[in-house]
Amino acid sequence: MLTVALIAGLSACSVTPRRAAPVEDRPISGVRPVAPSASAPTQAASAPTDAKPLPGAENAGKPGYYTVKSGDTLIRIALDNGQNWRDLVKWNGLDKPNVIEVGQVLRVVPPGVDPTAVATRPVTTGKVETRPLDGKPVAGAASAPAGASAPIAPATPAPAATAARDSDDEPAWGWPVGSPVSAGFDEQRNKGLDFNGKAGEPVLAAADGRVMYAGSGLRGYGNMVIIKHNNSYLTAYAHNQTLLVKEDQAVRKGQKIAEMGSSDADQVMLHFEVRKQGKPIDPSKLLPAR
């Protein structure tokens, strides 16, 4: 009888595990905002304790939708799905884009688009331009304030940029910086190429496109620019000390978009990613021979 009573007492003292407390992303600091029209979305907070159905729950598991996990941010979700975070706000009717909840389900493809019909053709090098880019900064460019329109750097006139074209054509790629590669692509450990260089070294757009993000709201990337080139491709440029473009600005291949720095890194470097439909791919397979 004593044993039974003891077991009953221990059972009564058991507790239900607590839910994780909401996680807030750190505030953006150290750089003048380059997109003052909206604050960068913050990290996902844990779902409230009252059992209220979360937005989009009926779409969980369906193609073209994403279920928010702990630690997610809207910027990260957009990057991993090859979309602009502002489009996610619009497609999902988010009144407060700074607040997303664990378990919430977000549409990550445009309305009316069949997510099962997304092109899956293999990545090929295609025809790329092999002439060297002039990576020298234009006079006065180094003093341009963050958020200002950047000067155009190509040595020869380029045709008007067809930014974020509604096609899957292979962009004409160029190197984003003149420094040598210091770390290659690794699908698990390094989702792009790293370049070591000097603070202030010009960072160039790798192809024509439109800026879909310019800021410092994604942890681990520092001051970053993301450019969308067409329906399939986007590129990311991280750890800059200065950003010279702003969101929704059209840019051309070889245009100076930032200056190399060490934001959110332990040394001066550029981390460069190419993503096809949100998936990181090896940039060295696309860039022309030096």
UniProtKB/TrEMBL annotation:
Region entry Disordered, spans: 19-61, 123-170
UniProt-recorded name of the protein: Peptidoglycan DD-metalloendopeptidase family protein
Residue stretches of biased makeup (Low complexity): 35-51, 139-164
Lineage, uppermost ranks: Bacteria, Pseudomonadati, Pseudomonadota, Betaproteobacteria, Burkholderiales
Superkingdom field: Bacteria
Family statement drawn from the similarity comment of this UniProt entry: Belongs to the E.coli NlpD/Haemophilus LppB family.
Domain LysM: from-to ranges: 64-108
Family annotation (InterPro entries): Cell_wall_metabolism_enzyme, Dup_hybrid_motif, LysM, LysM_dom_sf, M23ase_b-sheet_dom
